[in-house]
Design a protein that fits this description.
The chain contains twelve helices and 14 strands. By secondary structure, the protein is α/β, with parallel strands linked by helices. It has a single domain, classed as TIM Barrel (Alpha-Beta Barrel). The chain binds NADP nicotinamide-adenine-dinucleotide phosphate. Residues 19-22, 30-33, 36, 66, 97, 144-145, 175, 177, 203, 230-236, 239, 241, 266, 283, 285-288, 291, 294-295 line the site of NADP nicotinamide-adenine-dinucleotide phosphate.
Length: 330
């Protein structure tokens, strides 16, 4: 698989990466999540299942793996798998996230699945927890869903704690979320210390529905940040599983366009992100080996002639994030 160097980090990454959001906990918002886990939520069964997906990923050339403290046992499953496969540190790139605590107690139905706290105390506590799971395989540590509301980019204690870890060799990143991703990224790009960018990477929601950050991501790329894209399939909305009546016409068009390429909607959606030169890594959120293999077909698609046509799928950030927040945990 094509590889890239992730910004100025020197980390070698594959153009498609895989995330643990749907593999590390019984409940998640992706469409059809429960079915994919065959409704067997015993931790051992879920770890075994996640390892089959990770084995498929490794065999197909994936070398960037994304986790978070809030993905239940996602970090633990990933750490165990890396050690079980005796993968050497230089062969793999691993990112994780701090800032959300997992609070669903291994249930699907929970009042709160995750609780956000962007404080220095949370950072230091979760960093130790991530180290316990991933050890020195942990390359990039990202603020999870930094927003203006969380105030984390104005929090001097947090910023100096991040600088301290960066000076000890940890790459520092942030993930964005919500309809104001652009403003949060703009603020983050202006945070420097001793003239050096604080953030080495940015993880952003970008897909054919929500691509309001395009121009600023080109800027981030020029400034040397590594760019990781999440929600390339809009949490499954860009797949045949999407039964939303409001989307049915567009779904038909997307299926037809995929048919012209003799491919599938998921591969076309991911190919549209791979087509962006500023995108270093596009994360697959697949929760089954067959979905992952289908996603990887995106690498063989050339969507240049469809760029204009794909613009018809664009939603406003408020439309997109409103739809996303209505997705049910399952
Ligand atoms: N705030 C943050 O920092 C944040 C937020 C979201 C995600 N992320 C990261 O991004 C990663 C990607 O996750 P995502 O949720 O954003 O993924 P996504 O690509 O937007 O959505 C993945 C969904 O698409 C479905 N899918 C994939 N391939 C399919 C296929 N061939 N046919 C039908 N359905 C298919 C998956 O279903 P199945 O479950 O059936 O495979 C899953 O429901 C996460 O694991 C996480 O690491 C970070």
């Amino acid at each position: 698989m094509e590889t890239r160097i992730l910004g100025n980090t020197g980390l070698k990454v594959s153009r498609i990466g895989i995330g643990m959001a749907a593999l590390g906990r019984p409940g998640y918002i992706n469409l059809g999540h429960a079915e994919d886990l065959c409704r067997d939520h015993h931790p051992d069964a879920m770890e075994k299942h996640s390892h089959t997906v990770l084995d498929t990923a490794w065999e197909r050339g994936i070398r960037y793996f994304d986790a978070a403290r809030s993905y239940g046992k996602g970090e633990k499953f990933l750490g165990n798998w890396i050690r079980k496969r005796r993968i050497s540190r230089g062969e793999i790139a691993v990112g994780s996230k701090w800032g959300y605590a997992y609070t669903a107690e291994w249930k699907i139905e929970a009042e709160h699945h995750e609780i956000k706290e962007h404080s220095e105390g949370m950072f230091r506590k979760q960093y130790e927890e991530s180290l316990a799971n991933l050890g020195d395989y942990l390359n990039v540590y990202q603020i999870h869903s930094a927003t203006e509301e969380s105030g984390v980019l104005d929090n001097k204690e947090v910023l100096s704690a991040l600088i301290e870890k960066k000076q000890n060799g940890l790459y520092i990143g942030l993930s964005l979320s919500g309809e104001r991703q652009v403003y949060t990224l703009e603020k983050a790009l202006n945070i420097r210390f001793d003239g050096v960018q604080l953030f080495d990477t940015v993880q952003v929601t970008w897909n054919i529905l929500e691509n309001s950050t395009t121009e600023l991501l080109k800027e981030a790329k020029k400034l040397g940040l590594g760019v990781i894209v999440k929600e390339a399939m809009a949490n499954g909305r860009l797949s045949e599983k999407n039964q939303d009546a409001d989307f049915s016409d567009k779904k038909t068009i997307l299926a037809e366009m995929a048919g012209i390429l003799d491919s599938t909607m998921d591969a076309l959606a991911i190919a549209a992100v791979l087509h962006q030169d500023w995108a270093d890594v596009v994360l697959s959120g697949a929760a089954t080996p067959s979905h992952l293999i289908s996603n990887l077909n995106a690498l063989d698609l050339n969507i240049s002639d469809m760029e204009e046509e794909l613009k018809q799928f664009r939603e406003t950030p408020s439309q997109y994030w409103k739809k996303r927040s209505a997705l049910r945990w399952n």
